Amino acid sequence: MRGDYQQLVDEISATLGAPATLEDRDFGLIAFGVHDSDDDLAMDPVRTRSILQRRSTAAVRAWFEGFGIARAQAPLRIPPDPAAGVFMGRICLPVRHRGVVHGYVWLLDDGHLADLELGRPGAQTDPRLAQAMETTARIGALLAAEARSGAELGELLRALLVGPPAGRDEAEAALRDALRGTARGPLAVVAVTPWDTENPAEAGPLPNLSGLAAVCAIAGRPRAAGSGTAGASTGAPHAPRTSLAALVRLRSGASLDPAHATAEQLLRSPRAAGAEPEPRSGTADAGGRGPADGARSTEHGAGPAPSGPVAPSGGGAPSGAEHGARGTGRTARGAAGRGGGAVPAAPAHGVRGASAGVSDVRRELGELPAAWREALAAARAARADERFGPVVNWADVGPYRLLTGLPATDPDPAVRPLLELGHTELARTAEEFLDRAGQAGRTAQALGIHRQTLYYRLSRVEQLTGLDLDAGEDRLLLHMALKKARLARA
């Protein structure tokens, strides 16, 4: 089907005599036409970035949606901004099917399309554009059909992972028929949490990720406010957090690299809720923009944004900083205390953005419910402890393999006083001390404090909890309680 998209994009390029690019509604690249030009300035950095990284940022999406592209029923012009690195304007052809937008076709316009009539009221649409829009409608029908197929696979995957046990055999058989050869593995499950499904139109599958066999959103169970942490107010239960489950085909049972690549791409989706802001402004084939909070970022600093849509920042080629902001997706296993040196402490309070977990390799569909539990537990661990990075394997989360399986309960009474907000620094000190097997020198160095200061804080911990840090069982209780509280905050 990908070849069908490429052929249709080439048809549009030939019809209008302009390089065309097709992106899905999340601004993920699907296909792009040939750009035949000897002019180095003809293909601006924003299009280059879109092709090389295959996805733009949430800030880019927000900026272009500010032009009304998500609501547009007809083509729109997007003006150039050479000072911001957008050397050519764009014409956006919204890709719709039965009133629902499924993507966008972007045409680069170096001025030769200035006389192209876009269909203003009372004016006749240019025949070339009418033909291009007919092709765009065919693209919309293909994307809609792919979305329906993906949604059906997602429903089967959800039924298998978390559905009633009585219906899992039927779901497994139906999923096996739908996946055909893929069902024989090797497979892995990726969990991304949290995942935004507030807008039903945005909750469908993501068919444009290589290796992705099926995907579905899974809502967690609501928990009472204050459950799992001390000092939190009680009251109505929190709304259940939704996570994404992705079934990934592996090239071999010896490598989880395809699952990591899928997880990293999913974390760059606008639907990866709670993700940290990008360190620099983003760009896309459609163009780019500065931060969505109204500050226009440049290489030399930041200033107030002009009113209306904001053009992309910077005039040079796009930086790779955003692409690498989340790291490689591998765990920091060695640096986390298995033979490594001092490790910066994770925040005692506060939670990172969306994180992803990867299950162990599976060969049979019947093993996927267990794989989902592994992936979700690993994602929770990554969200709780930044030493793991944004993507972590179930096999690499160490004690969290046990802790994530424990029921959500209030903290142990002895440790509860230490978890109050007023004792954040003491809790962090105790956790660092226990993470380093009670080695005072390494702990003081990691915290950047004098050893006597460390001893004073540890004595305060003992006073608050009544625990003896020279006793192995007391240390075990405190360590488990602190890690479990970290999970609860996440």
TrEMBL record:
Which InterPro entries does the protein's record reference?
CdaR-like_regulators (IPR051448), PucR_C-HTH_dom (IPR025736), PucR_C-HTH_sf (IPR042070)
The PucR C-terminal helix-turn-helix domain covers: 426-483
Q: Which domain of life is it from?
A: Bacteria
Give the compositionally biased regions (Low complexity): 301-312, 343-354
- Family annotation (Gene3D superfamilies): PucR C-terminal helix-turn-helix domain
* Record region (Disordered): 267-355
Protein name from the UniProt record? Helix-turn-helix domain-containing protein
Q: Which organism is it from?
A: Streptomyces buecherae
